[in-house]
Amino acid sequence: MFSVTCVAPVNIALIKYWGKRHEELILPVNDSISMTLSTDELCAKTTVTASESFERNRMWLNGEEVPFEEGSRLQRCLKEVHRLAVASGSQKVPPTWKLHIASVNNFPTAAGLASSAAGYACLVYSLSRLYDIPLSEELTTVARQGSGSACRSLYGGFVQWHRGALDDGSDSVARQIAPSDHWPNMHVLILVVNDARKKTASTRGMQQAVKTSQLIKHRVDQVVPDRITRLREAIASHDFQAFAEITMKDSNQFHAVALDTYPPCVYMNDVSHRIVSFVHDYNDRMGSYHAAYTFDAGPNACLYVLAEHVPHLLSAILKVFPNDLADGDTYLRGLPIPKVQDAESSKLDSLDVHAKNAFRYIIHTKVGEGPRELRADNSLLINGLPLE
Predict the structure, then answer these.
(1) Which of 146, 194, 288, 333 could form a disulfide with 120 if both were Cys (CB 3.0 to 4.6 A apart)?
(2) Calpha distance 268→291 (Å, rounded)
(3) For 291-317, what is the mean pLDDT?
Protein backbone atom coordinates (compact mmCIF):
# COMPACT_ATOMS: atom_id res chain seq x y z
CA MET A 1 0.00 0.00 0.00
CA PHE A 2 1.18 3.50 -0.85
CA SER A 3 -0.38 6.77 0.31
CA VAL A 4 0.26 10.49 -0.13
CA THR A 5 -1.45 13.57 1.27
CA CYS A 6 -1.15 16.98 -0.39
CA VAL A 7 -2.67 20.44 -0.19
CA ALA A 8 -3.30 22.76 -3.13
CA PRO A 9 -4.27 26.43 -3.22
CA VAL A 10 -7.15 28.45 -4.54
CA ASN A 11 -6.35 30.85 -7.36
CA ILE A 12 -8.41 33.91 -8.23
CA ALA A 13 -8.36 35.15 -11.82
CA LEU A 14 -7.33 38.73 -12.52
CA ILE A 15 -7.91 38.35 -16.27
CA LYS A 16 -10.88 35.99 -16.41
CA TYR A 17 -11.20 32.64 -18.14
CA TRP A 18 -14.75 32.38 -19.46
CA GLY A 19 -15.64 30.24 -22.42
CA LYS A 20 -14.21 27.13 -24.07
CA ARG A 21 -13.26 26.41 -27.67
CA HIS A 22 -13.22 22.64 -26.92
CA GLU A 23 -15.50 21.27 -24.22
CA GLU A 24 -13.92 17.86 -23.60
CA LEU A 25 -10.30 19.04 -23.50
CA ILE A 26 -11.31 22.28 -21.75
CA LEU A 27 -9.47 24.63 -24.08
CA PRO A 28 -10.21 28.30 -23.30
CA VAL A 29 -11.15 31.00 -25.78
CA ASN A 30 -8.63 33.41 -24.24
CA ASP A 31 -5.55 33.58 -22.03
CA SER A 32 -6.03 34.30 -18.34
CA ILE A 33 -3.88 35.45 -15.41
CA SER A 34 -4.44 34.59 -11.76
CA MET A 35 -2.96 35.06 -8.33
CA THR A 36 -2.50 32.02 -6.12
CA LEU A 37 -3.70 32.42 -2.52
CA SER A 38 -2.00 31.04 0.57
CA THR A 39 -2.96 27.49 1.55
CA ASP A 40 -2.88 28.57 5.20
CA GLU A 41 -6.35 30.09 4.77
CA LEU A 42 -7.87 28.43 1.69
CA CYS A 43 -6.96 25.03 0.30
CA ALA A 44 -8.04 21.61 -0.83
CA LYS A 45 -6.52 18.62 0.97
CA THR A 46 -6.39 15.24 -0.70
CA THR A 47 -5.19 11.83 0.39
CA VAL A 48 -4.66 9.21 -2.32
CA THR A 49 -4.06 5.61 -1.29
CA ALA A 50 -3.19 2.80 -3.72
CA SER A 51 -3.44 -0.86 -2.75
CA GLU A 52 -3.36 -4.19 -4.49
CA SER A 53 -6.27 -5.24 -2.27
CA PHE A 54 -8.67 -2.48 -3.37
CA GLU A 55 -11.39 -3.86 -5.62
CA ARG A 56 -12.38 -0.59 -7.31
CA ASN A 57 -11.59 3.09 -7.43
CA ARG A 58 -13.51 5.15 -4.89
CA MET A 59 -13.60 8.83 -3.91
CA TRP A 60 -15.01 10.89 -1.04
CA LEU A 61 -15.47 14.67 -1.20
CA ASN A 62 -15.98 16.41 2.15
CA GLY A 63 -16.99 13.07 3.66
CA GLU A 64 -19.54 12.11 0.99
CA GLU A 65 -18.78 9.40 -1.57
CA VAL A 66 -18.98 10.63 -5.16
CA PRO A 67 -19.28 8.55 -8.35
CA PHE A 68 -16.08 7.41 -10.00
CA GLU A 69 -17.65 7.07 -13.44
CA GLU A 70 -16.04 5.96 -16.68
CA GLY A 71 -15.52 8.92 -18.99
CA SER A 72 -15.76 11.47 -16.16
CA ARG A 73 -13.27 14.28 -15.68
CA LEU A 74 -11.96 12.43 -12.64
CA GLN A 75 -11.35 9.30 -14.68
CA ARG A 76 -9.78 11.34 -17.47
CA CYS A 77 -7.25 12.90 -15.08
CA LEU A 78 -6.33 9.49 -13.68
CA LYS A 79 -5.89 8.06 -17.18
CA GLU A 80 -3.62 10.95 -18.18
CA VAL A 81 -1.51 10.60 -15.02
CA HIS A 82 -1.12 6.88 -15.73
CA ARG A 83 0.05 7.78 -19.25
CA LEU A 84 2.67 10.17 -17.85
CA ALA A 85 3.79 7.57 -15.30
CA VAL A 86 4.38 4.98 -18.02
CA ALA A 87 6.16 7.55 -20.20
CA SER A 88 8.48 8.54 -17.33
CA GLY A 89 9.26 4.94 -16.46
CA SER A 90 7.84 5.22 -12.95
CA GLN A 91 7.38 1.81 -11.34
CA LYS A 92 6.64 2.87 -7.75
CA VAL A 93 2.93 2.03 -7.93
CA PRO A 94 1.53 -0.40 -10.52
CA PRO A 95 -1.12 1.38 -12.62
CA THR A 96 -3.40 -1.66 -12.16
CA TRP A 97 -3.77 -0.97 -8.42
CA LYS A 98 -7.03 0.71 -7.52
CA LEU A 99 -7.20 3.99 -5.61
CA HIS A 100 -9.16 5.39 -2.69
CA ILE A 101 -9.22 9.20 -2.70
CA ALA A 102 -10.41 11.43 0.14
CA SER A 103 -10.59 15.18 -0.52
CA VAL A 104 -11.77 18.04 1.66
CA ASN A 105 -12.05 21.79 1.15
CA ASN A 106 -11.74 24.22 4.04
CA PHE A 107 -14.01 26.68 2.21
CA PRO A 108 -17.45 26.50 0.50
CA THR A 109 -17.78 24.32 -2.58
CA ALA A 110 -19.39 25.68 -5.79
CA ALA A 111 -19.95 29.14 -4.30
CA GLY A 112 -17.72 31.05 -6.71
CA LEU A 113 -14.51 30.65 -4.69
CA ALA A 114 -12.62 28.42 -7.14
CA SER A 115 -13.22 25.18 -5.23
CA SER A 116 -13.00 23.00 -8.35
CA ALA A 117 -9.67 24.58 -9.30
CA ALA A 118 -8.12 23.78 -5.93
CA GLY A 119 -9.75 20.34 -5.85
CA TYR A 120 -8.54 19.11 -9.22
CA ALA A 121 -5.11 20.70 -8.79
CA CYS A 122 -4.78 18.84 -5.50
CA LEU A 123 -5.97 15.60 -7.06
CA VAL A 124 -3.54 15.78 -9.97
CA TYR A 125 -0.64 16.91 -7.79
CA SER A 126 -1.33 14.10 -5.28
CA LEU A 127 -1.42 11.56 -8.10
CA SER A 128 1.84 12.94 -9.46
CA ARG A 129 3.50 12.45 -6.09
CA LEU A 130 2.06 8.94 -5.79
CA TYR A 131 3.50 7.95 -9.17
CA ASP A 132 6.71 10.03 -8.87
CA ILE A 133 5.91 12.35 -11.77
CA PRO A 134 7.67 15.76 -11.63
CA LEU A 135 5.71 19.00 -11.88
CA SER A 136 5.78 20.19 -15.50
CA GLU A 137 3.81 22.14 -18.06
CA GLU A 138 2.45 18.82 -19.32
CA LEU A 139 1.04 18.10 -15.87
CA THR A 140 -0.88 21.38 -16.07
CA THR A 141 -2.64 20.04 -19.17
CA VAL A 142 -3.88 17.12 -17.05
CA ALA A 143 -5.25 19.39 -14.30
CA ARG A 144 -6.85 21.54 -17.01
CA GLN A 145 -8.92 18.56 -18.14
CA GLY A 146 -10.40 18.25 -14.66
CA SER A 147 -11.24 21.92 -14.20
CA GLY A 148 -9.84 24.54 -16.53
CA SER A 149 -8.50 26.94 -13.91
CA ALA A 150 -7.00 24.04 -11.92
CA CYS A 151 -3.92 24.28 -14.14
CA ARG A 152 -3.16 27.67 -12.59
CA SER A 153 -3.29 26.25 -9.04
CA LEU A 154 -0.28 24.03 -9.73
CA TYR A 155 1.96 27.08 -9.31
CA GLY A 156 2.28 29.75 -6.68
CA GLY A 157 2.47 33.50 -7.13
CA PHE A 158 1.12 34.87 -10.41
CA VAL A 159 0.26 32.46 -13.20
CA GLN A 160 -0.77 32.73 -16.85
CA TRP A 161 -2.86 30.07 -18.54
CA HIS A 162 -2.04 30.19 -22.23
CA ARG A 163 -4.93 29.61 -24.60
CA GLY A 164 -2.81 27.68 -27.07
CA ALA A 165 -3.55 27.08 -30.74
CA LEU A 166 -3.20 23.32 -31.28
CA ASP A 167 -6.31 21.19 -31.57
CA ASP A 168 -4.95 18.55 -29.18
CA GLY A 169 -4.51 21.14 -26.40
CA SER A 170 -0.85 20.28 -25.79
CA ASP A 171 0.12 23.97 -25.89
CA SER A 172 -2.70 25.13 -23.62
CA VAL A 173 -0.54 25.20 -20.50
CA ALA A 174 -0.06 27.21 -17.33
CA ARG A 175 3.21 29.01 -16.64
CA GLN A 176 4.30 30.98 -13.62
CA ILE A 177 4.78 34.70 -14.27
CA ALA A 178 6.26 35.53 -10.87
CA PRO A 179 6.69 33.56 -7.61
CA SER A 180 4.91 34.46 -4.40
CA ASP A 181 7.96 36.23 -2.96
CA HIS A 182 8.03 38.61 -5.94
CA TRP A 183 5.19 40.68 -4.44
CA PRO A 184 4.96 39.39 -0.86
CA ASN A 185 2.90 42.30 0.47
CA MET A 186 0.03 41.61 -1.94
CA HIS A 187 -2.91 40.68 0.29
CA VAL A 188 -6.57 39.83 -0.25
CA LEU A 189 -9.74 40.40 1.75
CA ILE A 190 -12.47 37.97 0.67
CA LEU A 191 -15.93 39.27 1.51
CA VAL A 192 -18.15 36.19 1.65
CA VAL A 193 -21.61 37.45 0.78
CA ASN A 194 -23.15 34.04 0.17
CA ASP A 195 -21.47 30.65 0.48
CA ALA A 196 -24.37 28.66 -1.01
CA ARG A 197 -24.06 26.80 -4.32
CA LYS A 198 -24.47 29.23 -7.22
CA LYS A 199 -27.62 29.06 -9.36
CA THR A 200 -25.88 28.73 -12.73
CA ALA A 201 -22.81 26.48 -12.74
CA SER A 202 -19.74 27.89 -14.44
CA THR A 203 -19.68 25.16 -17.10
CA ARG A 204 -23.25 25.91 -18.15
CA GLY A 205 -22.67 29.67 -18.02
CA MET A 206 -19.63 29.42 -20.29
CA GLN A 207 -21.43 27.24 -22.82
CA GLN A 208 -24.29 29.71 -23.09
CA ALA A 209 -21.93 32.69 -23.31
CA VAL A 210 -20.00 31.21 -26.25
CA LYS A 211 -23.27 30.41 -28.04
CA THR A 212 -25.17 33.63 -27.44
CA SER A 213 -23.00 36.55 -26.27
CA GLN A 214 -21.97 39.11 -28.88
CA LEU A 215 -19.67 40.83 -26.38
CA ILE A 216 -17.49 37.76 -25.75
CA LYS A 217 -15.97 37.78 -29.26
CA HIS A 218 -14.96 41.44 -28.89
CA ARG A 219 -13.50 40.64 -25.48
CA VAL A 220 -11.47 37.69 -26.77
CA ASP A 221 -10.19 39.37 -29.95
CA GLN A 222 -9.75 43.00 -28.93
CA VAL A 223 -9.57 43.37 -25.15
CA VAL A 224 -7.88 40.45 -23.43
CA PRO A 225 -4.56 40.35 -25.38
CA ASP A 226 -3.77 43.96 -24.46
CA ARG A 227 -4.80 43.46 -20.83
CA ILE A 228 -2.60 40.37 -20.55
CA THR A 229 0.43 42.36 -21.69
CA ARG A 230 -0.28 45.33 -19.43
CA LEU A 231 -1.05 43.21 -16.37
CA ARG A 232 2.18 41.25 -16.78
CA GLU A 233 4.04 44.57 -16.87
CA ALA A 234 2.21 45.81 -13.77
CA ILE A 235 3.09 42.64 -11.86
CA ALA A 236 6.73 42.79 -12.96
CA SER A 237 7.08 46.42 -11.81
CA HIS A 238 4.91 46.17 -8.65
CA ASP A 239 2.62 48.82 -10.15
CA PHE A 240 -0.49 48.52 -7.96
CA GLN A 241 -2.23 51.42 -9.72
CA ALA A 242 -2.17 49.69 -13.11
CA PHE A 243 -2.81 46.30 -11.47
CA ALA A 244 -5.95 47.62 -9.75
CA GLU A 245 -7.46 49.31 -12.78
CA ILE A 246 -6.93 46.33 -15.11
CA THR A 247 -8.27 43.87 -12.53
CA MET A 248 -11.46 45.83 -11.83
CA LYS A 249 -12.16 46.53 -15.50
CA ASP A 250 -11.76 42.87 -16.39
CA SER A 251 -14.07 41.79 -13.59
CA ASN A 252 -16.67 44.26 -14.82
CA GLN A 253 -16.40 43.03 -18.39
CA PHE A 254 -16.64 39.38 -17.38
CA HIS A 255 -19.94 40.06 -15.63
CA ALA A 256 -21.08 42.14 -18.61
CA VAL A 257 -20.52 39.06 -20.77
CA ALA A 258 -22.53 37.00 -18.29
CA LEU A 259 -25.39 39.50 -18.59
CA ASP A 260 -25.00 39.58 -22.39
CA THR A 261 -25.55 35.80 -22.38
CA TYR A 262 -29.06 34.69 -23.27
CA PRO A 263 -30.76 33.88 -20.98
CA PRO A 264 -28.53 36.08 -18.81
CA CYS A 265 -26.32 34.63 -16.08
CA VAL A 266 -26.53 36.77 -12.95
CA TYR A 267 -23.73 36.03 -10.49
CA MET A 268 -23.46 39.31 -8.59
CA ASN A 269 -26.24 40.50 -6.29
CA ASP A 270 -27.21 43.81 -4.69
CA VAL A 271 -24.53 43.50 -2.02
CA SER A 272 -21.92 42.78 -4.69
CA HIS A 273 -22.80 46.01 -6.48
CA ARG A 274 -22.65 47.92 -3.21
CA ILE A 275 -19.13 46.59 -2.68
CA VAL A 276 -18.15 47.88 -6.13
CA SER A 277 -19.54 51.32 -5.28
CA PHE A 278 -17.78 51.28 -1.93
CA VAL A 279 -14.37 50.44 -3.44
CA HIS A 280 -14.58 53.26 -5.98
CA ASP A 281 -15.72 55.71 -3.29
CA TYR A 282 -12.94 54.54 -0.96
CA ASN A 283 -10.26 54.91 -3.64
CA ASP A 284 -11.51 58.40 -4.49
CA ARG A 285 -11.23 59.44 -0.85
CA MET A 286 -7.73 57.97 -0.56
CA GLY A 287 -6.56 59.82 -3.68
CA SER A 288 -5.33 56.69 -5.51
CA TYR A 289 -6.08 53.01 -5.87
CA HIS A 290 -5.77 51.44 -2.41
CA ALA A 291 -8.07 48.49 -3.17
CA ALA A 292 -9.16 46.55 -6.25
CA TYR A 293 -12.15 44.24 -6.49
CA THR A 294 -12.73 41.18 -8.59
CA PHE A 295 -15.73 38.84 -8.65
CA ASP A 296 -15.65 35.32 -10.04
CA ALA A 297 -18.88 33.49 -10.93
CA GLY A 298 -20.59 34.36 -7.66
CA PRO A 299 -21.47 37.28 -5.40
CA ASN A 300 -18.36 37.10 -3.21
CA ALA A 301 -15.76 39.84 -3.57
CA CYS A 302 -11.99 39.48 -3.53
CA LEU A 303 -10.36 42.79 -2.66
CA TYR A 304 -6.67 43.10 -3.51
CA VAL A 305 -4.80 45.42 -1.18
CA LEU A 306 -1.18 45.96 -0.17
CA ALA A 307 -0.35 44.76 3.35
CA GLU A 308 0.26 48.28 4.68
CA HIS A 309 -3.27 49.34 3.68
CA VAL A 310 -5.15 46.31 5.04
CA PRO A 311 -6.00 47.78 8.50
CA HIS A 312 -7.44 50.99 7.08
CA LEU A 313 -9.42 49.20 4.36
CA LEU A 314 -10.89 46.73 6.85
CA SER A 315 -11.90 49.58 9.17
CA ALA A 316 -13.70 51.21 6.25
CA ILE A 317 -15.44 47.94 5.39
CA LEU A 318 -16.61 47.45 8.97
CA LYS A 319 -17.97 50.99 9.04
CA VAL A 320 -19.79 50.80 5.72
CA PHE A 321 -20.93 47.18 6.15
CA PRO A 322 -21.43 46.79 9.94
CA ASN A 323 -22.10 43.30 11.19
CA ASP A 324 -23.48 41.96 14.46
CA LEU A 325 -20.94 39.14 14.25
CA ALA A 326 -17.92 41.43 13.82
CA ASP A 327 -16.79 40.99 17.43
CA GLY A 328 -16.99 37.20 17.26
CA ASP A 329 -14.19 34.74 16.70
CA THR A 330 -15.41 33.46 13.33
CA TYR A 331 -16.32 36.64 11.41
CA LEU A 332 -12.77 37.81 10.71
CA ARG A 333 -10.82 34.76 9.58
CA GLY A 334 -7.29 34.16 8.37
CA LEU A 335 -4.32 36.43 8.93
CA PRO A 336 -4.55 38.78 11.94
CA ILE A 337 -5.17 42.46 11.19
CA PRO A 338 -3.86 45.26 13.43
CA LYS A 339 -6.22 48.08 14.35
CA VAL A 340 -6.10 51.27 12.33
CA GLN A 341 -4.22 54.18 13.89
CA ASP A 342 -6.28 57.15 15.15
CA ALA A 343 -4.55 59.54 12.75
CA GLU A 344 -5.84 57.52 9.80
CA SER A 345 -9.35 56.92 11.10
CA SER A 346 -10.50 60.51 10.36
CA LYS A 347 -10.75 59.63 6.66
CA LEU A 348 -13.51 57.16 7.54
CA ASP A 349 -15.78 59.61 9.36
CA SER A 350 -17.90 60.63 6.37
CA LEU A 351 -18.40 57.15 4.95
CA ASP A 352 -22.07 56.16 4.74
CA VAL A 353 -23.42 52.79 5.87
CA HIS A 354 -24.36 50.68 2.82
CA ALA A 355 -25.83 47.56 4.38
CA LYS A 356 -25.89 45.83 7.74
CA ASN A 357 -25.05 42.14 8.16
CA ALA A 358 -24.27 41.91 4.45
CA PHE A 359 -21.43 39.36 4.81
CA ARG A 360 -21.30 35.93 6.38
CA TYR A 361 -17.60 36.40 7.17
CA ILE A 362 -14.37 37.96 5.89
CA ILE A 363 -11.17 36.05 5.08
CA HIS A 364 -7.79 37.80 5.15
CA THR A 365 -5.11 36.05 3.13
CA LYS A 366 -2.21 36.83 0.79
CA VAL A 367 -0.34 35.65 -2.27
CA GLY A 368 0.84 32.09 -1.69
CA GLU A 369 2.82 29.16 -3.00
CA GLY A 370 1.73 26.15 -5.03
CA PRO A 371 0.79 22.63 -3.90
CA ARG A 372 2.88 20.70 -1.43
CA GLU A 373 3.01 17.19 -0.02
CA LEU A 374 2.33 16.69 3.68
CA ARG A 375 3.64 14.04 6.02
CA ALA A 376 2.24 10.61 5.29
CA ASP A 377 1.16 10.18 8.93
CA ASN A 378 -1.05 13.31 8.98
CA SER A 379 -4.25 11.52 9.95
CA LEU A 380 -6.14 14.80 10.32
CA LEU A 381 -6.39 15.09 6.54
CA ILE A 382 -7.97 11.65 6.27
CA ASN A 383 -10.63 12.61 8.78
CA GLY A 384 -11.83 9.06 9.40
CA LEU A 385 -12.76 8.34 5.80
CA PRO A 386 -12.50 4.67 4.77
CA LEU A 387 -9.28 4.42 2.82
CA GLU A 388 -8.80 0.71 3.25
Answers:
(1) 146
(2) 19
(3) 96
